[in-house]
Amino acid sequence: MTHGKTDEDISNTHLSDISQENQETPETRRRCRTGSLKKQPFPWFGLDIGGTLVKLVYFEPLFLTPDEEKKEEESLKQIRKYLTSNTAYGTTGVRDTHLELKNIDLEGYKGNLHFIRFPTDQMEVFMKMVIEKQFATLIDTFQATGGGSYKFEEKFHSEINVHLNKLDELVCLIKGINFVDRHSDMNGESECFSIQNPSLGNDQIVKEPFDFRNPYPYVAVNIGSGVSIMLVNSENDFSRITGTSLGGGTFFGLCCLLTKCKTFDDAIELATHGDSTKVDKLVSDIYGESGYTKFGLAGSVVASSFGKMNSAEHREQATRQDIAKALLVTITNNIGSLAINAAIQHGVERIVFVGNFLRVNPISMRLLAYAMHYWSNGSQKALFLEHEGYFGAVGALLGNVCGS
Ligand SMILES: Nc1ncnc2c1ncn2[C@@H]1O[C@H](COP(=O)(O)OP(=O)(O)OP(=O)(O)O)[C@@H](O)[C@H]1O
Ligand SMILES: CC(C)(CO)[C@@H](O)C(=O)NCCC(=O)O
């Protein structure tokens, strides 16, 4: 939970505040006189430097006019080629090709939007790439959001002479959600989906397209390293209502600690083959099979997460897979509980879950969908978006120095 915060701390934010954090340099002022992304020189990037992952969104313009083609410097062509012809950068950078948005319209240009991520602790490698691939000869300012835009600002400036133009992470997130939802069905798929029959006992999910064109109000739950929960009243009006430090970073961190797994994908793979009931104490373990009927707690409900691990016998029986699954269930259910309370408190029906914790993670999606349905008697609905953790970076791309 967000501890020690007063109502005054929970401030309403407007998208027009997007450039409040900007510390303009003479150069950024010069470049943005016109107030339009279109007038920014290519390449167009949006950077979201999070607590665990950096997300980089790159707009690849198609169909440049002959004049623009002629003017396109050789180094710009090289950047375009490097980013669009590779799917891996160094040993840790990945381009999520399945998320590429083709032929989208941006400020009068048609182009493809590419989605790239790498671990935040590999920032040195990214900065080396910026130098080697001559990004810095073409742009001197990255539109950047996330806590790392503050943390790394000085390093970028002093080491590679690149400015980070800081944009608020939650403003970028909401702006990015809105933009991607409106542009992504060009690939023939619905960006927004719910989960069919989430109560089914297995971890497979069947996605059901959801029309997100008129979504307001909705609760947005961003599950990154930590979790932020926002009430979104309209595209330009939202507030952060609560959050929790028990997020994706907690799952991954504890899983590394307890199972010795090395990657997030391995942690999810372990969980896929685990049985959390070997680790958690259920209501049936306390009350017997019938559960605590007087207060509607079925025997299958978790009474105490990790509650069996005080017993040496149970510890011996629990596998790495069981522990990974119990961790995933624990963290997911806790987030689900905060989300449903927030939605009920504010009388909101739609709860949109985003963030990279949901990457390759159908188990959590199903659990969240089930929990929203179960705890609200069907009146609240969990929604998910295909581009999961990339909305902040998209918002940064759109929110150039002058606002867009
Ligand atoms: N390849 C990966 N490496 C590490 N974590 C991953 C990976 N893929 C998914 N995750 C999960 O996603 C989480 C990070 O999500 P996300 O990128 O949305 O947040 P962030 O921006 O880094 O964090 P925050 O917003 O709290 O600063 C990790 O904590 C982990 O649970
Ligand atoms: C600190 C941020 C906003 C960084 O993205 C995120 O990790 C978060 O919302 N953490 C939870 C903080 C809290 O509300 O307890």
TrEMBL record:
Highest taxon of the lineage: Eukaryota
Bias-annotated ranges (Polar residues): 12-25
InterPro entries: ATPase_NBD, Type_II_PanK
Region annotation Disordered: where it falls in the sequence: 1-33
SUPFAM superfamilies given in the database record: Actin-like ATPase domain (SSF53067)
Cleavable signal peptide: none
Xref: Pfam families: Fumble
Protein name per Swiss-Prot or TrEMBL: Pantothenate kinase
